């Protein structure tokens, strides 16, 4: 077929299919987010217009926002479908680099198609081109290289034939999954080539399920049989594998307490007798208590980042760390005994090898006992009190009103700690939570919710965010409202970057430049943002709550709007310094010397904590 590069690329996108976790077949690329400019409107834009009935195009209003929406879409489909985002060259392209970082850190598929400068160089320097003084081949799109799992610049149409299989490989492989960037020079987009018909034949991608090596699985089984106090840690890989039922059954058969990482949250019903709570700094004191006592930690589908491990201070120094992961890169971290395999396949084989091994009843019973104490603590935080509502109380109301099958989100600031630590999952497999705490990207809360609302056919998507995140990136409220993808955004206004103010003051520094009261202004009477009026101007249904009962009524009404396809924003003024505390340590860069004595004290505490951390990391 004689096609332009852009037509061939779009034709290939249309031909790709995928198998969802329920076994049904669907498009691998169900749509494209686009902001057109001179670098993509004629080539790729024309090609997308020609196939718009088969490949819907959704109009974004900020390149970072729409690319983050594509990330949120992929997360909500458990990595089985891929969002695509295209921009013009220059600033439009660079705006998407942050979204690529989010996808890379969270191991999520994302296809980015930024326009690029002319290969023929006849009009150099073209509008929006940044010229390199030392490399004639460099463009701003090279900034995508460190945050892409596959990067290519298409300088000849026929290069698509070689690169597109690699694109599909990265986007559908559980080990290599991450962002792909295809930089598309605008002259090459419009050039033609006689492409083979086979490039456009429908292909259904079945994500591979690698089985474990026999020697490795035997070694892990032996380690498990020798454990007296094992702890099962479930990460996002369990969700992407569809191994939730298998993981629960494994724990139940052998009496192993269960905890979850940030990405694994809501995999286990809150009232499950083996559930100890979420793990880590933003998790629960209950899970952290068991982690400190465990003699073996079986971590499934997690990269064990610092918030999960409390900067590697959480586990006992002599703990045996065992990992199951499709990516060897993650499986071998910190001297773990690795099992490189699909989570579902690995747990199935392990269950056969370790039977009839069972943990001592006293250790099994510890899970429910410690979680009961954590539940009492959270109940106390949720109880009505005088003054402004707290984050914990807001999360409590949203949790109580939500239903099985709903999807809840957040990304940055203080809300991840409240949502991860305090949310009580109903246990429905279709329920979900997306706390973007791999990259902790302010602004993901709204954009990601747009993508999640597009992806999910049932339940209500609710995103919780602070005033700082709202101001960082709110344009996709209008994108979602315009497109008709309804969700609820609960905006908690606490007058600044409150969680960073907590970190700052908690380590001895004075309050400075985080809360509005501590930031420089030449105005004697500083303005306040009217979030309600702003959201209304973007086409959203807006509800304002003054207290918890008002929040319950407003959130209930907002859910009805979301079910009807409207974006609903609930605004509530919240307490600036009340937090849920899991009692875990986090390593941050406290100065070795300061003019503030309190900072010196904080550094002394840091050095003391690091002595335990180094002792653990130094294990053979």
UniProtKB/TrEMBL annotation:
One of its GO terms (biological process) is inositol catabolic process. GO terms for molecular function: acetolactate synthase activity; flavin adenine dinucleotide binding; hydrolase activity, acting on acid carbon-carbon bonds, in ketonic substances; magnesium ion binding; thiamine pyrophosphate binding. Residues 40-128 form the Thiamine pyrophosphate enzyme N-terminal TPP-binding domain. It comes from the Bacteria. InterPro entries: DHS-like_NAD/FAD-binding_dom, Myo_inos_IolD, THDP-binding, Thiamin_PyroP_enz_cen_dom, Thiamin_PyroP_enz_TPP-bd_dom, TPP_enz, TPP_enzyme_TPP-bd. It holds the Pfam family TPP_enzyme_N. Keywords: Hydrolase, Thiamine pyrophosphate. GO terms for cellular component: acetolactate synthase complex. Residues 217-350 form the Thiamine pyrophosphate enzyme central domain. Residues 436-563 form the Thiamine pyrophosphate enzyme TPP-binding domain. Belongs to the TPP enzyme family. This is 3D-(3,5/4)-trihydroxycyclohexane-1,2-dione acylhydrolase (Decyclizing).
